[in-house]
Known about the structure:
The structure holds two protein chains of two kinds.
Chain A: E1 5-7, E2 10-13, E3 19-24, E4 31-38, E5 42-50, E6 53-57, E7 64-68, E8 74-78, E9 87-94, E10 102-103, E11 107-111
Parallel strand pairs in A: 2-11
Antiparallel strand pairs in A: 1-3, 3-8, 4-5, 4-9, 5-6, 7-8, 9-10, 9-11
Chain B: E1 3-5, E2 10-14, E3 19-21, E4 24-26, E5 31-38, E6 44-50, E7 56-58, E8 64-68, E9 73-78, E10 87-95, E11 99-103, E12 107-112
Parallel strand pairs in B: 2-12
Antiparallel strand pairs in B: 1-4, 3-9, 5-6, 5-10, 7-8, 8-9, 10-11, 10-12
Amino acid sequence: KAGVTQTPRYLIKTRGQQVTLSCSPISGHRSVSWYQQTPGQGLQFLFEYFSETQRNKGNFPGRFSGRQFSNSRSEMNVSTLELGDSALYLCASSPTLSETQYFGPGTRLLVL
Amino acid sequence: AQSVAQPEDQVNVAEGNPLTVKCTYSVSGNPYLFWYVQYPNRGLQFLLKYITGDNLVKGSYGFEAEFNKSQTSFHLKKPSALVSDSALYFCAVRDDWEGKSTFGDGTTLTVKP
């Protein structure tokens, strides 16, 4: 099976812009989670979707949003970008909410 | 609320020596515990998991982990370290019903020749 894919892999934006990141899960996986990874804050949970419904949400401002489509693909959107949003954004998929998560390679976002 | 602690930011071992990366957890229900490894500029790779059963779990690349319920620990071990094991290691706990994984802050393992 193909692994989790994330697009784009690298992105440069300026403050105030918005960005949309995409994640395609492993075939058959219905749960998709998003994480932000920064050197100072480690791996921070953003949100998790299962069958197009948001099941869990981390402690991030409303500028961070996401959605999941009927084919389980997921997108996350960050509006009004800030310098502190520069990070590696990781997507992970799993068959159900409690099973092993498999991670994609990440999207590295740089906000200037 | 669930939590994970990795008390060591850095672990240094010599090649060929045994290694241990420590993890303790707190969860209200049954713990689903995981170890992941991350190499530079890569996503996290799954190493092993504990759901139920034997307290000693074997995983990829010769790694194993010991679940200790009384000490709420899930330490990662390997009998003989390789230089190629040098990477960032994350312990995670996952709720057995609602999902939502919580990750530790990570431990950087350096294996010196």
